[in-house]
Write a structure and sequence with these properties.
It is built from ten helices and eight strands. It is α/β, with parallel strands linked by helices and 256 residues long. Bound molecules: iron/sulfur cluster (SF4). The site of iron/sulfur cluster (SF4) has 14 residues, from helix 6.
């Protein structure tokens, strides 16, 4: 890949809001962090006077938007130690579902059950999410089951004591979420809870303010709704009703 191609790819990632990428020079070598805006600037033609030695472009072997794929992203993640969340994990929780899904659900991060099994949304909140997807779809006459959608989280390793992921963890792991979404190219995204909304929309607003209407991640319509673990609390009857309404809207939009 020549330097112009590398620059174009990096500009693409920079425009997505990705500030740092971890890349490998070759398969199974250690990933090194690359600050995207700085390298784009270094590679810009105007910043390259003749006779000045230009730094070698960073390795981008499997980072191209054209050939990115879920298995390629998983391979890049590898035995990831890019942020401190790796210290407490049993299993990395990448994502599950249809790699060509029309609808992707994004949660916050793995809990204890997910960490133990390496699969997102398999605990009580996960069972509720499955019921919400399949129950709402059945009621609305939409033939969709959980394996038809794709489900993942902002961070792939369990935060200690199920705490909210910290900004640096979301930033570091968010590059993989963005790449997953680009590889899948869904018709819509459903962000579950405020952490997912924050990661995808860059907003500080809470779910109550954001839910019930369409936003966009890049060009992809995005609906924010409550995280199922919030809905499990007994007093959240109204929130449950609203989440079902949100989901109905999403399912009709995607599958009608
Ligand atoms: S949370 Fe993401 S970036 Fe952090 S160690 Fe796990 S996979 Fe790597």
């Amino acid at each position: 890949m020549d330097r112009d191609e590398v620059r174009r790819k990096l500009e693409f990632y920079r425009d997505l809001g990705i500030r740092e990428l971890h890349v490998r020079a070759a398969p199974r070598t250690e990933a090194v962090p690359v600050t995207v805006p700085a390298v784009v600037e270094a590679l810009a033609p105007a910043a390259v006077p003749q006779k000045v030695e230009v730094p070698a472009p960073p390795p981008m072997l499997s980072m191209t938007p054209d050939d990115d794929s879920l298995p390629g992203i998983l391979e890049d993640i590898g035995d990831c130690t890019r942020c401190k969340l790796h210290r407490g994990r049993t299993n990395l929780v990448f994502g599950v579902g249809n790699p060509q899904a029309k609808l992707v659900f994004v949660g916050e991060g793995p809990g204890a059950d997910e960490d133990a099994q390496g699969i997102p949304f398999v605990g009580r909140a996960g069972q509720l999410l499955t019921q919400m997807i399949e129950g709402t779809a059945a009621k609305e006459g939409i033939p969709v089951r959980r394996p038809d959608v794709y489900i993942c989280n902002v961070v792939k390793c369990r935060p200690p004591e199920n705490r909210t992921p910290e900004p640096d963890e979301m930033q570091t792991c968010g590059q993989f979420l963005f790449r997953q979404l680009m590889a899948i190219q869904p018709r819509a995204i459903c962000a579950l809870g405020s952490t997912a909304a924050k990661a995808l929309l860059g907003t500080k607003d809470g779910v109550m303010k954001l839910r019930g209407r369409w936003h966009k991640w890049r060009d992809v319509p995005l609906m924010v709704t409550y995280h199922p673990s919030y809905l499990l609390r007994a007093y959240n009857v109204q929130a449950k009703r609203e989440a079902w309404e949100d989901l109905k809207k999403v399912l009709h939009f995607v599958y009608d």
